[in-house]
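Q: What would this chain look like folded?
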Amino acid sequence: MSETRKRRYVSFTVDNSLACVFLDRPPVNAIHPEMADELGETMDELAGLEEVWAIVITGKGRCFMGGADIRYFLDLDQESGEAYIRHIQNAYLKVGEVDRPVIAAVNGPAIGAGCGLAAACDLRIASSRATFCMPEAGFGILPAYSSIRLPQIIPEGIAKELLFTGKTIDAYEALRIGLVNRVVEPGQEIKAAEDMARQIIEQAPLAIRHTKKAMNEGREVLFAEALDRAARRFGTCCTTQDQKEGPRAFLEKRRPEFKGR
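A: My prediction, written as structure tokens:
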């Protein structure tokens, strides 16, 4: 029997040992601190439910996640920038560290923080209409989670190309470079993720949990330290003129004029 629990921006259902988490902040599920905190709280709640053996995360509507809410970028400084990004880092850490396998069902664009959330998951199933993009440099900031996480999934040179250029790739290119595990027809991504989760659920649950923990422990200490340093660098970026110019240009629908200061 399915059970639904809902917060303002994040909800989940539990059915036969499988939890499905839904991001729900129209129109594009853009993340902000409150939504990030809700995602982290949801992962904590699921970690406490022994009947949950696997987790699927997806977005409601046409996007998986259309990045961060750019309006929050306009007034950030060193201190508030660090505080802002730690909300997102902490939520994504909980996705990666929960001792159940987590599968992203990427139903549409996964931009910036959306690509980061997909990367935080253990496995990724993408709709053929999904796209992936890391545009943060165009806003005068660094992706303070994905800059650490992406090179753990795909070759470093390819990760740098995505992070440095902000280019958009489609689902099949994401499959080719190893960013996603499988591409399916639009509308089939949740079912495909659930099918994969059911295969995992058929295995011994404690063995799966210990396997994930063992794999995470191989990078845990350095990863946490790197995230802390990245948060401080994000804060430093928030003191620059370029960081103010990027979001303003986006909201004013014009090309940014960066000065390198």
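The longest strand covers residues 10-15.
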